[in-house]
Amino acid sequence: MSGGGPNYEPKERTSPPEPGELLLEERQWRIDEVVAGRTRTLTVVLERLEDAFNMAAVLRTCEAMGVQDVHVVRNPELGFQPNSSVTQGCDKWLDIHRHETFEECRAALKAAGFSIWVSAKREGARSLFELTFDGKVALVFGNERHGVSEDALAGADGVFWIPMRGFSRSLNISVAAAAAITRAVAWRQERRGPGGDLTDEEAKQLTRRFQVLSVKQRKKLYRED
Questions:
Q1: What's the CA gap between 62 and 94, in Å, rounded?
Q2: What's the burial of 77, exposed, middle or buried (CB within 10 Å: 0-12/13-18/19+)?
Q3: Domain 38-192: CATH class, spelled out
Q4: pLDDT tens readout for residues 22-56
């Protein structure tokens, strides 16, 4: 008996559909809206954080306010593991850059043209409300118990603090970050309008990435997480 036949012949592989073709119009509209508001010229640095809830809360603020990049300086005593009940999956939309030391982080930011401002209450520190955010700006927030490191203070372009009018003289790290990020975004919106600042190529790449992340079967179709 002879074998073969059309059912046994190798089938030609087909490429998966473009992710945008699999999305509802409302979802694509939302992706376009989010990408249009994204920035890569304002970034946040988290130095040696300890609390998983704080880690997660800052990530959620960054994502909500359109900050695409977050830099994390490793705490040698524990890993960076944001609490998932707080992030609600927002971290998948962000670019999280991990560094072994602050100096490594500083070198990467400086190579990209960022000025670095550290949050700390020190003599000579400037009020958050006096800062300008018209260039590439990185805001650094330190450890819950010890604050930013001496390396961060020495390597920064400046130090800022958040003025307080009540009896409380300090803020939780996640609250301080939220206040500073919101201030920076508002400052820019007042002067530039509500849009983000991605290049056309950055917007194109981020749009496709968000499209893929919005497809439920993405691991099977695109072999992407």
A1: 8
A2: exposed
A3: alpha beta
A4: 899 999 999 999 999 999 999 999 999 999 999 99
